[in-house]
Amino acid sequence: MRTILNAHSHISVAPESLFLLNLFPKYKNVKNWDKKRINQFVGDLFLDEKIGLWWNIDRDETLKILLDYRHHLHAYSDVAHKIYQIYADASGKKGGILVADKNPEYTRFISVLLQIFPSAKFLALVRDPRSNIASFRNVKFDLKHSVSLSIRWNQYNNDLLRFQRRFSDKILCVKYEDLIAAPTQALQRIENFLEVDGLVSLQHTFFKNTPNLYSFNQKIGSPLDQSRIEPWTRELGDSDVTAINCLCAQTASRFGYRISQAKLRFGPLLLALPYILFGALINGLEVAYFGLPLHLKHYIMKLYRRKTKILSTADQNSQ
Q1: pLDDT less than 50: residues of the chain
Q2: pTM across the whole model
C-alpha cells in the first residue's frame, strides 16, 4: 500500500518508524518548543535507527529546519507533522502534500493517534488470515507458528473492527484480494476516501523504479498478480489451515471472507495451547512496550533489530 500511495506526486508515505507513538508520552504536553526542547526532541527522534537509514534525512538539517520553524510549533502534533514534511521534502515532494505513516502496530492505537491528529484518516489493508499467516511465516523477524500468528491476526483485526464502529468516517478497510482482482474499483474507493485524484490512472506505474528497503520480503515493490491471492494453498499444511480456520473464521467472516469454522479436537487443542498463550502474551507485550521509558524502548528495539537483521538492506544501501 505504501508503494501504491507513494506513486502519487502529492502523497508522501514515510517508511515504518514508531517515532510518533514512542515520543508522544514524553512530549504530548509540551507547549513551549524552545531551542533546548527542540534539540532534545531531535536527539530522541534519531535514537530510532530507521530515521537515518530508511527515512534518509539528516540530523543536523532536521534540527536546523525545526529551529527555523519553532515559532510555528505549539504542540507535539505540529512537530510530528513537520517531521513528515521533512521526509516528503527529502523525497522530492514539496508543496501541498498529503503525509502518511505506514505501521501495522498503529492498528491497536487509533484512539491515541486521533489525540495527536484529530483530523487523521486511517487506511487499512486487510488480508485473508491464511495468506497473511503464510506470508509472515517466511520472514525472519516474526512468529513462526500458525496458531500464535492466528491469535495476533485476530487481535489486530478485531481492534480494527472495533475502531471502525467508533470512527466509521475515519477508517477505510480495503481487502488485499480486491486490490489485486479489481484494482480500479479498489483504488477508486481509496481516492474517494482520501479525497484525491489520480491513483486509478497511475496503477500501471506503481512498481516502476521502486526501491525495496525490506530485505525480509523481496516481493515488496514488485507488481501485484493473481498468484499472490491464495499462497496459503501452496505453503500451508492441513493442520495449519485447520488451526487458522478454527481461530480466525468468525473475525474473517466480518470482512467477507468465507472460511468454514473448523473445530480442533482435544488432542490438537492441547498441543496448540502453549502457542495460543504465547500469541496472547506477545499481543500484550506489544501494547506494554509503548508504555515503557523512551530509552528502554529504544534499547529493546535495537536488540530486536540486531537479532533479526531487519535493517540489513538499509545498512547496505547506506554504505
Answers
A1: 212-217, 313-319
A2: 0.88
Task: Check residue 305 and give its pLDDT.
Answer: 85
Which pLDDT score is estimated for 140? 72
Helix axes 76-90, 19-27, angle to 10 degrees: 150
The parent domain of residue 7 ranges over: 1-102
Query: Do 146 and 69 sit in the same domain of this protein?
Result: no
Tell me what pLDDT residue 316 has.
35
Q: How far apart are CA 129 and CA 150, in angstroms?
A: 7
For 120-144, letters b (16+ CB in 10 Å) and e give eebbbbbbbbbbbbbbbbeeeebbe
- The total of structural domains in the chain comes to 2
- Do 278 and 231 have their domain in common? yes
Could you give phi then psi for residue 55, rounded to 5 degrees? -80, -25
Asked if residue 216 lies in contact with residue 139, where contact means CB atoms within 8 angstroms, the answer is yes
The domain that contains 193 carries what CATH number?
A: 3.40.50.300
Domain shared by 146 and 6, yes or no? no
Question: In whole angstroms, what is the distance from residue 31 CA to residue 1 CA?
Answer: 34
Burial label for 186, CB within 10 Å (0-12, 13-18, 19+), is buried
Residue 261, pLDDT score: 76
Predicted pLDDT of residue 216: 43
Are 170 and 310 in the same domain?
A: yes
Strand boundaries in the chain, DSSP class E: 11-14, 98-101, 122-126, 171-175
Rounded (to 5) percent helix, strand, coil in the chain: 60, 5, 35
In this structure, the answer to whether residues 91 and 131 fall within a common structural domain is no
Structural domain includes residue 116: no
